[in-house]
Amino acid sequence: MTSTPASVNTGPAADIEVACTHLDTTARFFRALSDPTRLKLLEFILRGERTSADCIEHAGISQPRVSVHLSCLVDCGYITARRDGKKLRYSVGDPRVADLVVLARSLAADNATALDCCPRIAPADRA
Hints:
By secondary structure, this protein is mostly helical. The chain has a domain at 35-114: Winged helix-like DNA-binding domain superfamily/Winged helix DNA-binding domain (Arc Repressor Mutant, subunit A, Orthogonal Bundle), CATH 1.10.10. 58% of the residues lie in helices and 9% in strands. The chain has six helices and three strands. A three-stranded antiparallel β-sheet has the order 1-3-2.
């Protein structure tokens, strides 16, 4: 007879734990896109491969800040980086990222009034 080790959680509590873990992962997935600068950089890179210098010029912020945002996008799997001599070149590795951004833009436009009225997610200039 085989028994389940005491440290293994089974039953409804285990299902809740798995669901919470999934929700945490999904929330972190969207959190990476919740920063306007990261989203601006991602949309820029979606239009074609970019160097760090391209991204700095486009974002209009300092190199260290752009580097932090690009690292986050790479670490979260939204973009990939490849070395080309001394330069890093960034591109979107998974075409579903473009689909996600297009869908998000469409949903945001369709719900613009509701988003503008929601006090819990006020735009940065009103926060």
